[in-house]
Design a protein that fits this description.
Elements: E1 2-8, H1 13-17, H2 30-45, E2 50-55, H3 59-72, E3 76-78, H4 95-101, H5 105-110, H6 123-141, E4 145-150, H7 152-161, E5 175-181, E6 184-190
Parallel strand pairs: 1-4, 2-3, 2-4
Antiparallel strand pairs: 1-5, 5-6
Length: 204
């Protein structure tokens, strides 16, 4: 069975501002860089021998992957299939701005009553491109360990499909170890807490 670790990127500037990021680029903060280095050291200390660290091509995920890959002495490989959900008209907005411009829609989204943010991607669309990107990455690494750095919304979808409670908080540089069966992540186990600060919930 393939071995897979999927991680959320480090804290970005828009994480701090509480803005819905989607496909808009925002850089890591110094805290985010430190989180990536701490996770990289933890992986190296526990003997993770990754063939590659694949990642979203967005800056916050790509930079996180570059830091981890440098510690694990393997390449960082960007693939747009690992991007965050396209947030449509909500990209760049704070929670308060969304609630003011689209009253009640964000609450409906959180209850699962909307297929997507206005103009954004559906769960099925996000999972389809993630799965295709994962297939490409697994074909590259073979039976070796694969590390993927992605985003909160994508990771939550993948973990929920594998059986994780949808309300589980996934902090920056948090994530799961998975097996892979029939091309899909299964049997999720949380990666250890880095203990680098408070957990910060995501605005996707």
């Amino acid at each position: 069975m393939h071995r897979l670790i999927v991680l959320r990127h480090g804290t970005s500037t828009w994480n701090l501002e509480g803005r819905w990021q989607g496909w808009v680029d925002s850089p890591l903060t110094p805290e985010g860089e430190a989180q990536a280095a701490a996770r990289a050291r933890e992986l190296a200390r526990t003997g993770a021998l990754a063939r590659a660290v694949y990642c979203s091509d967005l800056t916050r995920a790509r930079r996180t992957a570059e830091i981890i890959a440098a510690h694990l002495e393997c390449p960082a490989v960007p693939d747009p299939g690992f991007r965050e959900r396209h947030g449509g008209e909500w990209q760049g907005c704070t929670k308060d701005e969304i609630d003011a411009r689209w009253p009640g829609l964000r609450a409906a989204w959180r209850r699962g009553e909307l297929a997507s943010p206005p103009g954004g991607e559906t769960d099925a669309e996000v999972l389809a491109r993630f799965d295709a990107a994962l297939h490409r990455a697994l074909a590259h690494v073979g039976e070796n360990l694969l590390v993927v750095v992605t985003h909160h919304g994508v990771l939550r979808l993948v973990a929920t499909r594998a059986g994780v409670d949808v309300h589980t908080v996934i902090p920056n540089l948090g994530g799961f170890r998975f097996g892979v069966r029939d091309g899909l992540p299964v049997d999720p186990e949380p990666v250890g807490d880095l203990g680098t600060g408070e957990e910060r919930a995501a605005v996707e």
